[in-house]
Design a protein that fits this description.
Blueprint: H1 7-28, H2 30-47, H3 53-62, H4 66-93, H5 108-117, H6 122-131, E1 133-139, H7 148-165, H8 171-189, H9 201-235, E2 246-250, H10 264-292, H11 300-306, H12 312-336, H13 349-365, H14 369-386, E3 392-398, H15 399-412, H16 423-435, H17 449-463, E4 469-475, H18 480-493, E5 501-505, H19 508-522, H20 525-531, E6 534-540, H21 542-548, H22 550-571, E7 574-580, H23 592-597, E8 607-613, H24 615-621, H25 624-643, H26 651-672, H27 678-685, H28 688-691, H29 714-723, H30 734-742, H31 747-757, H32 759-774, H33 777-787, H34 791-815, H35 825-854, H36 861-878
Parallel strand pairs: 1-2, 1-8, 2-3, 3-4, 4-5, 5-6, 6-7, 7-8
Helix pairs in contact: 1-2, 1-4, 1-8, 2-3, 2-35, 3-35, 4-7, 4-35, 4-36, 7-8, 9-10, 9-14, 9-25, 10-12, 10-14, 10-17, 11-12, 12-13, 13-14, 15-17, 15-18, 16-18, 19-22, 21-22, 22-26, 26-30, 30-34, 31-32, 33-34, 33-35, 35-36
Length: 882
Amino acid sequence: MSHDLHESLRDNVRILGDSLGRTIADDLGPGFVDRIETIRGFAKRGRQGEDGSQRELIEYLRKLPDRDLLPVTRAFNQFLNLANIAEQHYRSRFRRVEDYKPGSQPVLSELLERARGAGHSPRKLVETLAGMRVELVLTAHPTEVIRRTLIQKYDAIDDCLSTIESSGDYPERGVRAQGRLEELISQAWHTDEIRHERPTPVDEAKWGFAVIENSLWQAVPDFHRDLDNLLLDTAGERLPLDAAPIRFASWMGGDRDGNPNVTAKVTREVLLLGRWMAADLYLRDLEQLKAELSMWKANSALKAEVGDVAEPYRELLKRLSSRVEATRDWAKAELDGRSYEGGPIIETRDQLYAPLLACYRSLCDVGLDTIANGVLLDTLRRVAVFGVTLTKLDLRQEASRHAQVMEELTHGLAFGHYRDWSEAQRQEFLLTELASRRPLIPRRWECSAESREVIDTFRVIASEHREALGTYIISMAAQPSDVLAVALLMKEVGGTVSLPIAPLFETLDDLDHAGEVIDHLLALPGYRALAGDSQEVMIGYSDSAKDAGQLAAAWAQYRAQETLVEVCKRHGVDLTLFHGRGGTVGRGGGPAHAAILSQPPGSVNGSLRVTEQGEMIRFKFGQPEIALRSMEIYACAVLEASLLPPPAPKTEWREEMDRLAEVAHGAYVGVVREDPDFVPYFRSVTPEGALGRLPLGSRPTKRRQDGGVETLRAIPWIFAWTQIRLMLPAWLGSGEAFSQRLEEEGGLEVLREMRDQWPFFGTYLDMLEMLLAKADVGIAAYYEHRLIDEPALKALGERLRTRFGRLHEALLQVLDQQELLERTPLIRQAIEVRNPYIDPLHGLQAELLQRNRDADGAISADLSRALMVTMAGIAAGLRNTG
């Protein structure tokens, strides 16, 4: 890889940029394009260090008339989105999905050879892959700033680039594709990039299903076919037919934590939509199979099933199609509120799988293996992964909502006040009721609307097949009673359906006590009888980092996982860890391969759940080729962590991390919690106040509408700091920790030893390096200059930038580098290419924020839209925003 952007990537950026320029010239005239070029020129020269260029850029932007502000912001926003398309296209072609060091892109074939070299037999490799349970949980967190209608146009633009690149011998194809490209870019330019209304939870679920339909439906069988071929080469056998190493779950329509828009009715609707979409997709598969499986040779089992017919496979598939079509009709009738009057429907995975398996076995028995292992095998693989619901739907609710139900129940039944009881009293009550055969909840119970909604959610669980649902997650869990309360409600209202219950530990204190809580829980015979020999625990990355700072949170997460592994091993329980990661470093984001291999040894034992959030779903799974590579990365990482786990950290490294985390936590809290100027500074210098008007997701930006920063969700908290390029949540405190250690004897040596020999610490430093490279304290200083007058707030800003500089110096010293991203030139080049297009958006955003404040929030609709476009453009330029 050369230090310049790859030639094909540069060419595609130019093709798309030139086309956008022509589109803008057609709409607004060549003079306007010249204006855009002038702004870009100032920004580029400013980045190259030319004196006065940054000042000229700011002065030019401030003199722009109001009528030009919206089209200027739109032009830079569109270019950044097109640059992302070019980069995504490049990654797809050259198997580069993750931003990471050269040579660290995992390849499954190489990993299998390494595993064999380490003494693992071919049979062990097949068994490990067949038994692997990696579940990627698609969530609708509000960081996807691009409208679905534009995403569809961008996907079509990507197709045009592929056609242009492959048209060497057929130039007329290239000409046609170029014409289509111009048309699509013109369509995008003339489409409003900002939604006028927030998406509903159902809209979000439809967006998730669209990713499956347009990308994963093809990528999943391709992934299994590649895996099959690889195992045949290395182990001499295929992956079992029903193996599904990677599966998909969803929170879209099930995550009610702090989102009043997700109701029991919504959850029911989303489950029905999944059934409808699955039936519709399988019908397309079955039509192809009926067209292709025209053979007459069949085994006796199939002949006995369909009778003496000329085309036995078509006969069986015809019958199956009728049931799948009936299933689609049933789901549609339920969605429309009509009664269904058709024939029997498909209700379980096995009802769909068994007839297809009968066809497969028959073809193999009569020597038609090649046909069996064609499109029929692809459909079998889809059924193994997607079932009849496309995804399993998780449900998430805050612990306090279950406690409220218990309080109303105990008070109403004259048992006392649940909220006033000690933890021991709560556990005794809940365990007694779990063991009791009599119902606890009266048939005609009068309760609050909030408690009724909780009860109605459990009624939805009771009405569903178990395989349609995933895990019940309890946010803000802190005690065993939080889990027992859900178990009791499931028993009382959930009928025969019993879901795994996963407490989510997300504050620093909760992470520190996670092991104790699970130890206590598993020691309770009443709970153990329900849970059996498996337990799922969710680790929260977003709120712990917001609560404690990134360094202290990362170490708390690591320690919590170590303790949970040890506790579950002692109890003879299989632990599945569920990682609630976001897209950004500040929310646990980063390359999946490195993140998984940096977990404690034993914490990834063939099973893993992880959230894929917001815009990262599109970046990792939005196109079949990239989705294929993303799945390979997850399979590689989990296989490696299971068979070739990293070494346990040395005792002295743990002691070092304890000290570093303590210093970092103290520094972070000293600013965020204890400095009286911090909250006013945050609200003044970031667009946090305007973020609520950006219709990103269905969830409110705050858990409560009163209160300060502590009530703000982790996503808008990170998003706001990212917009001004200070990225504060992901680094504040780290500078003090590293600088202090480097001043002490032996500090540099031990930090470099940890960097080289401990994947957890090395990965943390890599993520910090990438984050600092995307940050820009000069831009943050300009926001401050434009938006803040109070001397005390300006002084705080100066102190924060000084802290950033101290961390920058310390990190380079530990990494033994002269500049950031020395070893990852592709990332550095990608950031440098984008900066001249992002910088004007920062200048325009600061200007629009000030005009908005001057007008007391009453700026024109066009200027308000321009402000939102700057947010979307900066988010697009920086990619992982929240």
